[in-house]
Amino acid sequence: MRVAILRFPGSNCDQDALYSLRDDIGVQAQYVWQDESSLSGYDAVWLPGGFSFGDYLRCGAMASRAPVMQEVRRFAAEGRPVIGVCNGFQVLCEAGLLPGALMANIGQKFLCQDVYVRSESNISIWTAGVHGVLKLPIAHGEGRYVADPETLERLEGSGRIAFRYVDGPGLVDGDQNPNGSMNAIAGVLNERGNVMGLMPHPERRTRALLGATDGLSIMNAFLALAV
Amino acid sequence: MTTVRVYVTLKPSLLDSAGRTVAGALQKLGFDELNEARIGKLIELKVRDYDEKRVKEMCDKLLANPVIEDYRLEVQPA
Predict the structure, then answer these.
(1) Do A146 and B18 touch (CB under 8 A)?
(2) What is the Cα–Cα distance from A141 to A147, expressed in whole angstroms?
């Protein structure tokens, strides 16, 4: 199992992903620069968080048109695993690999806090190991998921809501959907379930030293893929 | 050289959180008549051999996201 961690100018969670994948999960991972035109030799693709191209124009807009994304499209179309976290989720939406878009948080604030999420999907390797509620960190200014009513209905009806913000201990009313996402959506899947995008950062919660290991239930999917 | 202004606006059905904040500030300044403010983008392009089809292609390929935005062009008189 070798994971390609894509890097764009302005990516900043690429190292978090590398350390988590390599040291905590135990799979090989390498950085792949956005100008590359091949992903041969890789078994999975990770699009990291950050502020690719300074979030200019729209978050993820320029990165989604980078040369390597042509290859990511091909990779995804073959049913191979692709995951985008935070800015990576925004890039996947801008690329049209996932439906919808991510807009400025409803409260106009950059949010850096823990959230509680639950998966309601059983169509994807990415959520197969997730049971119950996870406490994961978010760090974003533009995480409000939006999509047209027909798309939302289609996602809801076909198990494609990868994660939803939910109540957790210590939360007061309204806190459970921190950015105002439609249907409290924190992550979505493509039709085949091989492409997932989510705003919370599972890679930041894979070792006890960092406070908790709730991210393992998502990150361990890489081990299942390796078999 | 032709100057083309591309106005990118959020689809009316979507909440504009920045616009809402601005509207709130204007109301606090005493502009009670204000109901709503919505913020869009103005992108000014300078192109050679202007071809509307090509500029629309620029909008469709990058400048606007059809999931959340609409756009319109305004060609500046030479």
Answers:
(1) no
(2) 18
* Cβ pair A8, A44 in contact under 8 A: no
CB contact under 8 A, B21 and A108: yes
pLDDT on residue A170: 58
CA-to-CA separations, B67 to A46, A59, A149, A221, B72, in angstroms, rounded: 24, 14, 12, 30, 15
CB B9 within 8 A of CB B77: no
3-state secondary structure B25-59: HHHHCCCCCCCCCCCCEEEEEEECCCCHHHHHHHH
The pTM assigned to this predicted structure is 0.95
Q: With beta carbons under 8 A apart, name residues in chain B contacting A104.
A: 17-18
**What are the pLDDT digits (tens) for A92-132?**
999 999 999 999 999 999 999 999 999 989 999 999 999 99
What's CA A210's distance to the chain center, in Å?
20
